[in-house]
Write a structure and sequence with these properties.
The complex is a heterodimer.
Chain A (H helix, E strand, L loop, with lengths): L1 H19 L3 E7 L4 H14 L8 E6 L12 H8 L6 E5 L3 H6 L7 H10 L14 H6 L1 E2 L2 E2 L2 E6 L1 E6 H6 L1 H6 L17 H11 L1 E2 L5 E11 L2 H8 L17 H16 L2 H10 L14 E7 L2 H8 L5 E4 L14 E6 L7 H11 L2 H17 L8 E2 L2 H13 L6 H13 L12 H16 L8 H24 L9 H26 L5 H34 L2 E2 L7 E2 L3 H9 L1 H14 L2 H15 L6 H13 L2 H12 L5 H8 L14 H11 L2 H12 L3 H9 L4 H29 L3 H7 L10 H11 L3 H29 L7
Parallel strand pairs in A: 1-2, 1-3, 9-10
Antiparallel strand pairs in A: 3-12, 4-5, 6-12, 6-13, 7-10, 7-11, 8-9, 14-15
Chain B lengths: L3 H35 L21 E2 L1 E2 L15 H22 L14 H12 L11 H11 L2 H11 E2 L1 E10 L16 E4 L2 E6 L7 E7 L5 E9 L7 E9 L6 E8 L2 E5 L3 E2 L5 E8 L2 H4 L7 E8 L7 E9 L3 H19 L2 H32 L5 H13 L2 H14 L18 H12 L3 H9 L4 H12 L1 H17 L2 H6 L8 H15 L2 H33 L4
Parallel strand pairs in B: 13-14
Antiparallel strand pairs in B: 1-7, 2-3, 4-7, 4-9, 5-8, 6-7, 8-15, 9-13, 10-11, 10-12, 10-15, 11-14
Classes of the chains: A alpha+beta, B alpha+beta.
């Protein structure tokens, strides 16, 4: 008793001791790949808010992103926001801000900023619109209100190789590509016609007619359809944001122009083949002179400096159709505060610090020193703030006498065109618009619809993509009066349904089952033993299944309440969604590899089904691939399949075969994944072993007496006796094929050209990337129906060929 | 005398072993590739090769060495005959030309101009721009072409590539509030040789204007020590990081740093190896809360080793010690380097602790729940049993994505988001596949045992606990391994349910490391991390594979 009292006093004492300390607030900050560089910035912020002068102490926990790119891969953030426990500050890709802001996932920062301007107009930390470059600022606003504070920014322009330009000097000058300062010297093209002419001049084929050097690849570096569309005077979204206008004649013109340039060089297939044979890094094709011009971002300067510092090149605004203005395209990141944060004030303070010049300087000082220590050129990233960019460029680049003028001039061009640069439209369907412009571009340049008429083909591709986007847009802006669903009645009905069914079952058995005493005890024991499964089923299967069935008839984005839309999801899936069919086809393609895997694993099992020395080691070797963690295996195979540095192509080269680009080639990507899956087929051998061990030996002995050889024994005894296992493996293999996900998720992200867009991955994309949870549920149920019917079909067919011993 | 049967048996066994070995090699090849990559350095990844190159702990530095992948290689279209015929004359011509160029080249190059690696390096470099047709020409013509086309630029670039040396350059200091003092140029630092056979030579280079090259020899002594004192403007008690730009020579010797300031002595926890031949920035940092953080670490921690008699105000004393590596230590250092880097950079132990906790809870939960439920399905008769069993099988077919969101919402409602609970609680309700497996297994056990126990007055739980449980041990072992593998590898669950890095299991930690390393493109570190993650599973499987296979085979999947 006395001990307890002492303990109590000690506890109280320690509590009161804690109470005197300033309160500590913990902020969670999710960065990105560059987390490493922000650590020092965060520490500085902490030293500035260490609890002195009566304010709270702030601790920042950073580096929790665990995703390659949160915008491409947002399920963690989505779950965290939906889970009500979001991080306090997130570094987010600006072009997706609108998408999340429209769903109320981010706090409106406009109010914070307005308050600061009112209360502390002279505080250097107070933000004003005028401090920022216009496009960066507008990209962070949704419907006139600020939702994100832009941090870094990038810009795109035309890079050209001066050595190559000089080599083709006369022809280029004749085509009008002249140096703006000296008309007798060749210079970068300024109009589309000049660009086309220059491409034709600088493209070289070898004696077999394959590309040796190209002048310009429209979608190489970083250009996409967007920049051509804008340069042609097109808009992807209407002014009010209600209509998608990506099928406007200007954009169709732009896509046709891209196709034309591809055709100059032998078509998109030839150029892609050339492109996949190119290497990056030290042998960057632009640096090595294999690509004479490209449209790329300012980050490419760094790559050039790293690969060949002394290269002669220049940067100019991207060419536009004659008479049209030329400009860049900027993008970049921004800081946001997710809805539901517990410390919005402190988060806002952190954001203001993160975009301050001091934070910029800390981060860049570290990087500058590292880059310079390794003998490189340090090229700072542009900030969205005008004052910081001006200061940083002068401080790190322009005033550094050891840096070549080429880089300084190039950077000046990027900064100069920044104020007029375009940016991707701020819309709730930003991600979909992005994916659709990529799709339309691919359909366009590959001439998917009308191979003979480039313009008509472009128009058709754009029309299709536009309709997909518009459909989504209409759902958001012109919602049909679908009723909202509230979860309370659903949960209530589910509980009532459960109670009633349990009760009625209980009554039913009580009446029907007349057994008494001993048997009654056995029933009770049965239910008790199975209780864990019952509870688990009701919690983790029954409830969720009911939920997802209801969901599949709804429009639901997790962040706002679901709306009942009837059969809409299913109708769209079967009538309008081409990706659904593509993913289904891809998955079926993979299913064809199931028998192959079965044959290999059966062969392994027959090898391992002997009593000889060292079997434990052999089994481990064969089973090794199956026990390797999926993430590790996927990473390993990315590395093996690497077209330039992988072991596979190196081995093929030894026997004189030039290996394909494997995962990066749309025709080889699926076979590549099949090869990887076959490597893991040791997993299936366990079941075969079980079957082989179950075949009675006397059958073989009898056959031997009859003079049967090993082949006949295999086909007449082993195979028939194994038929139940064949069935089992076939069913399990099929189920697994339809659930292939990790490979697509880690290795290929569904590409190239949707060739590894598998069913489960498509489902995942819809659920988490496009936030179409309702549609994803519908997809899931169709998947269930497919697997279920295929299983039934197999069971039905199997009656003819599966032999059960017990049926004798 | 050897029986005919013996020969037959022997040959059968040999064939069997042959296939088994061939298969084992084929199936383990990717894994071997993984191991091999994990022991390479970043610049050894290409061209692909099975064995990571071994280190060369030269005792004299600077020295010249061409890397294997930089040697002159026969272009594909040139015949072997022409190649052999022309290689020597060309190399001789190039060597002669180099001697002629001597007056134009920096004086410093002179002693190295006859080095065969330099000549071969220039040859290899020039091959890239040589027309293949040249190789069909007579010796004089071909060799003449090479000699006349060689430029100063070729010599400069190849020299920088093959000349390996140790050097020191700028030093800078960072305070606790991250204010960086302007870096101190190499020329302002006066290094004093305390011990060993080393001279410091001033050199001017294109990239870095001032540096001190270390010309050392380990022939007589196994170490050398340099020391300097540097004035620092910031208050010394706020000093946090010290950066020294240095160039290494790829000898895999080690370099230790010791700092003394404000009356304390600090020693680097791990050495910096001379493992590259590039400039780099080595960062040492006094132990701070950063070391306890879960971030990827890019610095070397300095531990406080007590008070020092060095108390000069406003100054820091830096002592750098280079220690010789024997060929064995160099090998060991090189081949374990990436592994130690992974352990040093990421909070691996925290990941492993979480993974083991999850694995333990899941195995316990699955064994308990699945065996109980399977007992109810296999040995007890109760109304609705068969219908429920069909339901069990049906849940196998539901894609996991279907229930992902609802299950997430359930755990969120229960307030378990960002805890480990959602990752082990479901195990206590059994898993359909394991229930199915165990049920099949239990049905194979004769009923006589159970009956006699019942006659002796044993209850249902007694039968389950005393009779069934001991008999299904092999199947339980199989389930334990399955569970281990599943939980160990699962990264989707943690990705959704966990946001705090301190709760990451190994699988997600590896994925996060991958995300971070993507920028740095350090494949070898990823591969080392993968090996570290795979090894526990391999050991477990190898140790338990007998029970595992027995567990599955005895089950019998029929009927």
């Amino acid at each position: 008793m006395r001990f307890m009292a002492v303990l109590f006093t000690v506890c109280c004492a320690s509590f009161s001791a804690v109470a005197q300390e300033p309160e500590t607030i913990t902020l969670y900050y999710w960065g990105n790949e560059q987390d490493l560089l922000t650590l020092d910035v965060i520490r500085t912020f902490e030293t500035l808010h260490d609890g002195s002068d009566g304010k709270p102490r702030i601790r920042v926990v950073s580096g929790q992103s665990a995703s390659i790119n949160k915008t491409q891969d947002p399920q963690r953030l989505l779950c965290a926001v939906a889970g009500g426990d979001p991080p306090d500050v997130v570094w987010f890709d600006r072009f997706a801000v609108g998408e999340w802001a429209a769903r109320g996932a981010f706090l409106k920062l406009q109010d914070f900023m307005a308050r600061d301007q009112r209360e502390n107009p002279d505080d250097p930390a107070t933000l004003y619109r005028e401090q920022f470059f216009q496009p960066c600022w507008l990209e962070s606003n949704y419907q006139g209100a600020l939702y994100a504070v832009p941090s870094d920014t990038d810009n795109r322009a035309l890079y050209y190789n001066l050595d190559l330009l000089d080599r083709y000097g006369e022809e280029l000058v004749a085509a009008g590509c002249t140096d703006p300062d000296d008309a007798s010297k060749p210079g970068p093209p300024r109009t589309w016609d000049q660009l086309k002419a220059a491409t034709e001049i600088m493209t070289e084929f070898d004696e077999n007619g394959t590309l040796k050097q190209v002048g310009f690849i429209p979608n190489y570096g970083n250009s996409w359809l967007y920049i051509y569309g804008w340069l042609a005077g097109g808009r992807f979204m209407s002014e009010d944001g209600l209509t998608c206008t990506m099928n406007s004649p200007e954009i169709a013109e732009a896509l046709a122009y891209m196709t034309e340039i591809y055709d100059l060089m032998g078509g998109a297939e030839a150029v892609t083949a050339f492109q996949t044979s190119l290497q990056t890094g030290d042998l960057d094709p632009f640096v090595s002179g294999k690509v004479a011009m490209k449209i790329d971002g300012d980050w490419s300067l760094l790559a050039i400096a790293r690969a060949r510092r002394s290269m002669r090149f220049g940067v100019a605004p991207a060419p536009a159709p004659a008479g049209m203005p030329r400009f860049g395209w900027c993008g970049g990141f921004a800081y946001v505060i997710p809805t539901g944060t517990r410390h919005p004030e402190e988060a806002w303070m952190l954001i203001k610090f993160l975009i301050s010049r001091r934070a910029y300087k800390i981060r860049n000082d570290i990087e500058a020193q590292t880059v310079r220590a390794s003998g490189g050129v340090f090229i700072p990233r542009m900030s969205s703030r005008k004052d910081i960019t001006a200061w940083a460029m002068a401080h790190y680049l322009y005033n550094d006498p050891s840096v070549e003028d080429t880089y300084k001039t190039a950077m000046r061009t990027f900064v100069a065109i920044l104020p007029d640069s375009k940016f991707r439209p701020v819309t709730p369907v930003g991600q979909l618009l992005w994916n659709e412009q990529v799709r339309a571009m691919e359909m366009g340049i590959y001439k998917h619809f009308y191979p003979d008429d480039i313009l008509q083909n472009a128009q058709e591709a754009l029309n299709r993509s536009r309709n997909t986007v518009q459909q989504e847009l209409d759902k958001i802006y012109k919602p049909e009066p679908y009723p909202e669903i509230s979860w309370t009645p659903v949960i209530l009905i589910y509980s009532v349904f459960l109670c009633v069914s349990i009760l009625s079952l209980y009554c039913y058995f009580n009446r029907r089952v007349t057994a008494k005493g001993y048997f009654r005890r056995e029933f009770r024991a049965g239910y008790l033993f199975a209780l864990p499964w019952f509870i688990g089923f009701l919690l983790f299967w029954g409830g969720p299944l009911v939920f997802s069935i209801i969901m599949s008839f709804c429009q639901y984005d997790v962040l706002s309440p679901p709306k009942f839309v009837g059969l809409d999801n299913y109708i769209t899936m079967f009538s309008g969604d081409k990706l659904f069919y593509t993913s289904l086809w891809n998955t079926l393609y993979m299913a064809m590899a199931v028998p192959l895997g079965m044959i290999i694993s059966l062969a392994i099992a027959m090898l391992l089904n002997h009593e000889i020395k060292g079997m434990a080691a052999y089994r481990t070797f064969f089973y090794l691939p199956a026990i390797m963690p999926h993430v590790a295996a996927a990473l390993l195979w990315i590395w093996i399949f690497n077209p330039n540095e992988g072991i596979l192509n190196a081995l093929l080269a030894k026997i004189g075969i030039e290996g394909p680009a494997w995962l990066q080639n749309q025709y080889w990507s699926k076979p590549s994944i099949i090869i990887m899956l076959l490597w893991g087929s040791g997993a299936g051998m366990i079941v075969w072993l079980a079957g082989l061990k179950g075949i009675p030996n006397h059958l073989y002995e009898a056959a031997e007496l009859d003079g049967a050889g090993p082949v006949r024994k295999f086909f007449n005894i082993t195979l028939p006796m194994l038929s139940p296992y064949i069935l089992f493996n076939l069913i399990m293999g099929l189920i697994q094929t339809f659930q292939i996900f990790t490979q697509a998720y880690i290795m290929t992200q569904g590409g190239p050209v949707d060739s590894t867009m598998f069913y489960a991955y498509n489902l995942f994309n819809n659920a988490f990337r496009y936030m179409k949870m309702g549609y994803a549920s519908a997809l899931a149920w169709v998947l269930f129906a497919i697997i279920f019917s295929l299983t039934l079909l197999q069971l039905w067919v199997s009656k003819r060929w599966v032999y059960y011993e017990s049926e004798k | 005398m050897i029986e005919k049967n013996d020969i037959k048996r022997f040959s059968r066994r040999s064939i069997l072993h042959f296939f088994l070995i061939a298969g084992s090699i084929l199936f383990s090849a990717p894994f071997v590739w993984l191991m091999s990559t994990s022991a390479k350095a970043t610049d050894e990844l290409y061209p692909p090769r099975w064995f990571p190159p071994s280190p060369s702990p030269e005792i004299e530095s600077p020295y010249m060495k061409l890397r294997d992948n930089e040697r002159a290689q026969r272009p594909l279209k040139v015949s072997e005959k022409d190649w052999n015929r022309l290689k020597t004359p060309i190399l001789e011509a190039l060597g002669g030309r180099l001697q002629q160029m001597q007056p134009v080249l920096p004086a410093f190059y002179s002693p190295w101009l006859t080095h065969p690696d330099l000549v071969e390096g220039i040859f290899a470099r020039m091959l890239q721009k040589t027309p293949d047709a040249l190789f069909t020409k007579v010796e004089d013509l071909a060799a003449g072409w090479f000699a006349s086309n060689m430029t100063e630029k070729d010599v400069f670039e190849v020299f920088n590539q093959v000349y390996r040396r140790c050097a020191l350059s700028d030093i800078s200091f960072v305070a606790g509030n991250m204010e960086t003092e302007k870096p101190l140029d190499a020329e302002a630092v006066a290094w004093e040789v305390l011990e060993g056979d080393v001279t410091l030579v001033e050199r001017e280079e294109g990239l870095r204007r001032y540096s001190r090259e270390l010309q050392y020899s380990f022939a007589h002594q196994d170490r050398f020590v340099l020391q300097t004192e540097i004035p620092v403007e910031m208050p010394l008690d706020t000093l946090k990081k010290i950066r020294i730009a240095n160039h290494a020579d790829r000898t895999w010797h080690s370099m230790y740093a010791q700092f003394a300031f404000a009356g304390r002595k600090y020693l680097s926890e791990t050495p910096e190896y001379l493992n590259t031949d590039k400039w780099r920035d080595s960062v040492w940092q006094v132990i701070s809360p950063d070391d306890g953080d879960v971030m990827v670490r890019t610095w070397i921690s300095l531990k406080d080793t007590g008070s020092s008699d060095y108390t000069r105000p406003g100054h820091v004393r830096i002592t750098l010690t280079w220690e010789k590596s024997s060929i064995l230590t160099a090998l060991l250092n090189k081949y374990t380097f990436n592994y130690r880097e992974v352990v040093r950079r990421v909070p691996l132990w925290s990941y492993i602790r979480n993974s083991f906790f999850l694995v333990g809870m899941n195995i316990f939960g699955q064994l308990l729940a699945s065996s109980l439920v399977a007992f109810a399905f296999a040995r007890l008769r109760w109304p609705g049993r068969d219908f429920c069993f069909i339901l069990v099988l049906a849940t196998l077919m539901v894609p996991p994505q279907v229930t992902l969101i609802p299950v997430f919402l359930i755990f969120k409602q229960a307030g378990l988001y960002n805890t480990l609970a959602p990752l082990w609680i479901p195990a206590f309700f059994g898993n359909a596949f394991y229930i199915f497996l165990l049920r099949q297994f239990m049905r194979g056990i004769p009923a006589d045992l159970e009956d006699s126990a019942r006659i002796d007055g044993c209850g249902y739980f007694g039968i389950y606990y005393r009779i069934i449980l001991p008999l299904i041990k092999p199947a339980l072992a199989a389930i334990a391994i399955f569970t281990f593998m599943f939980v160990w590898n699962d990264f989707m669950g943690p990705l959704i349910f966990i946001s705090d890095q301190e709760l990451y299991p190994l699988s997600l930690g590896l994925f996060a490391l991958h995300a971070m390393m993507l920028e740095l493109a350090q494949h070898e570190l990823m591969m080392a991390a993968s090996v570290l993650m795979t090894i526990p599973v391999i050991i477990l499987f190898f140790a338990a594979q007998r029970h595992f296979i027995q567990g599955i085979t005895l089950t019998g999947l029929k009927g």
